[in-house]
Amino acid sequence: SLALQPVITPELMQGHAHLKCTYSPPGSGLRYAVLWSRLASPGRQEQIQQDTTLQAFSYLEMSSKHLRLGDTVFCTVTAFARDSPEQQSLPEQSKGFYAGIKFLPESLQIAEDGKEYVLTIVSTVPITCSGHNDSCKITLQLSTEDLDSQLLGPPNIVLSACQVDLMPTPCSEGSCAAAALTVTAVTDFAQDGNRVSHISAEPVGQRDVLWRAHTPKDVKVTVQDLPTGNCYSFTDPHIITFDGWRYDNYKIGTFLLCQSTSRAFEVHVRQWDCGGHRSATACNCGVAAQ
Fold it and tell me: In this protein, which residues make up the domain named VWFD (predicted)?
């Protein structure tokens, strides 16, 4: 009974992306059988490669014809006594390693509160350069889809960028490249319940078929519907503020109706005479919003 504790980490070797399975050798005089496998379907693994080695590690190249980006990879290690091969340890399997691009977090719960929520895109494997100046990066085209698109109106969410570049960095803590963007829920002034959207990413302009064929898993974004404050200016004009106070303003001219103290937002109204000679009455005839 040995505690081999195999672990998979990404590594760039001679310009090629590899996965490295390392394990804790309990002593000398041992050989190791390392079986690489991928998750083919829920609950079923498919063998990719098998090695027998004296080393305390084994490599799997990402360009293997049996492996593609988006796979979850495992390594299973069994130790043998070199002099007595029939003496072998129980096989120990590593945790699954997702090889590809992924969003963090994998799902978002946000609200119609005007706040920006950070979404990070990570490549868990090294990005290789093919010798061209512009190819040592992965460009991702981002898009959003509202799952309740039959409802007319604005989109549920907006992104701070339509494209992001993943630039290679030394692999650390499961990240070999990362980019961040923000997601904001659209305040739609409608009581339409909680709504769901997806954010998707697609590599563009890639020469490397390994990346070109890779589509990361979408992010599910649930937008919590919040009640929206309203203010009104109507008829000759009566004004109701956000907190329910009522005023009258019969004057003629251009007025500042409301202004935010925290962001660049204000509304102007223009009022003209609409009461004739008998009464001093003004009516809204124009509005400008920034």
Answer: 229-290
* DSSP structural state of residue 3: -
The count of structural domains within the chain is 3
Assigned domain for 2 exists = no
Identify whether residues 17 and 30 lie together within a single domain. yes
Closest CA to 236 of 267, 278, 265: 278
Tell the residue number behind the tokens 């041992």, with chain if given: 30
Query: Is it the case that residue 133 has pLDDT exceeding 60?
Result: no
The answer to whether residues 244 and 201 belong to one domain is: no
Whole domain around residue 129: which residue ranges?
101-224
Chain segment 79-110, per-residue pLDDT in tens: 988 788 788 889 999 999 999 999 999 999 99
pLDDT digits (tens, 9 = 90+) for 161-213: 999 999 999 999 889 999 999 999 998 777 878 889 999 999 987 767 778 78
Token couple for 250: 């019969």
Q: Is the pLDDT reported for residue 73 higher than 90?
A: yes
Residues 60 and 74 sit within 8 Å (Cβ to Cβ): no
CB 219 within 8 A of CB 147: no
- Tell me how far apart the alpha carbons of residues 144 and 162 are, in angstroms, rounded to a whole number: 10
Among 79, 99, 119, the domain boundary falls at: 99
Contact in structure between 207 and 182 (CB atoms under 8 Å): no
Domain boundary among 99, 128, 147: 99
Residue 211 included in any domain: yes
d(CA 50, CA 64): 13
Distances in Å between the Cα of 32 and the Cα atoms of 13, 48, 55, 96 are 22, 17, 8, 20
On whether both 165 and 272 belong to a single domain, the answer is: no
Q: Specify the pTM.
A: 0.77
